[in-house]
TrEMBL record:
It comes from the Eukaryota. Residues 92-125 are annotated as: Disordered. InterPro entries: G_retro_matrix_sf, Retrovr_matrix. This is Uncharacterized protein.
Length: 125
């Protein structure tokens, strides 16, 4: 059916990383629920009525950041998985592009600083 996850999509990549145990998951979290929540998020709209979250997810920091305020408290651990995977992909990409390695490392530290306040922000709702 339409619930199949396509390889090469951000959601497919997230589930693959999940398989390989590269996700900061907590007890009780499941891949099935991650898939279900990702699809649910696709129905969320911003103030102008525009869809916030694509059906198959995204690794765009701005979108992930925007999604944060709409996510239910019980879904935060799943949101965190997206945020972490986006960050690690970004870091990996920069390290591949930059053979010296040093500027990349500096940038990834800045990104970690960028994500930290998002994760510690108190949850409304």
């Amino acid at each position: 059916g339409s619930s199949r996850v396509l390889n090469g999509t951000p959601l497919g990549e997230l589930l693959e990383a999940w398989e390989e145990r590269q996700m900061p998951t907590l007890a009780g979290m499941s891949k099935r629920k991650a898939k279900c929540i990702c699809k649910k998020w696709a129905s969320l709209r911003d103030e102008t009525g525009k869809q916030i979250w694509p059906q198959d997810g995204t690794f765009n920091f701005q979108t992930i950041k925007e999604l944060r305020s709409k996510v239910k408290p019980s879904q935060i651990p799943y949101w965190y998985c997206w945020a972490e995977l986006a960050r690690s992909r970004e870091v990996k990409g920069k390290m591949e592009r930059d053979t010296a390695g040093n500027p990349s490392l500096e940038e990834s530290k800045n990104e970690a600083r960028f994500m930290a306040p998002l994760l510690s922000k108190p949850v409304q709702g």
